Amino acid sequence: MKTQRKYTCKVEELPLLAKVIKDQLTRDLQDFQTRFFMFDSNYITEFDQLINLLKEQDTYHLRIVLRKQQTKLVKKFEATLRDNLLILEYKVNQHPLIPLSNFPFNTLRKEMRRANTEGVLETLKEIIQAIDFYANELDSLGWKNTHTTLLVGIGTQIDFHNKKQLDLFNSTSISMDDIRKLRNQVWDTIKTITNFGKRCYHGTVKKRQYTIKYLRSLINHETPTPNPPIQNHPPSTN
User: Fold this and answer.
1) Element (H, E) at 85
2) Structural domain boundaries of the chain?
3) pLDDT one-digit tens code per residue, 82-100
């Protein structure tokens, strides 16, 4: 049977919420221990391990890590690619018999801005094929084989590192159902702590710090709504 989603926050908020609530529990552990025996340093350690497991195995966050690695990979070669593309584009524009449309320079620049490694590789391959096709014309304009070799080498390196990262991503991914179970487990722990936190600080301003709404405002860098003043009404005389 498919595991049902329990968490009501966004997927990307879940590990951030977990970390904030873990830090608050660590800070307020002494207050919790005076009322609830289940909370101790071992509870915090186990919760921390669960958060780390979520970060390691949740494919959503693995995709973010993969995306950052791919961006870093493209940025590594961006300057060299850009310089060589400018030289090549200048040469192509000089020759009346070489159609500029066969060299998708703008497409490559767009894929580089997006840090899309697959798009960069495919477009770079098209440009290298066009270079080979118009080799004689480009040679007459002073385009060197060393420039072409450099572009091929960059493509090879991007392809190698990209496949390595994808293989790592695929080897660490788990099933969607298992991911949902893991997210639910983290959410259950968050709810346990917040529920006990509201009971522990009932009637005080600090109670709000254990509400999901307040915690979400913290991680999203929003300004929380101020607490209304606590009014102590005199007992009724009726």
Assistant:
1) helix 59-94
2) 11-60+179-219, 73-172
3) 898 899 999 899 888 899 8
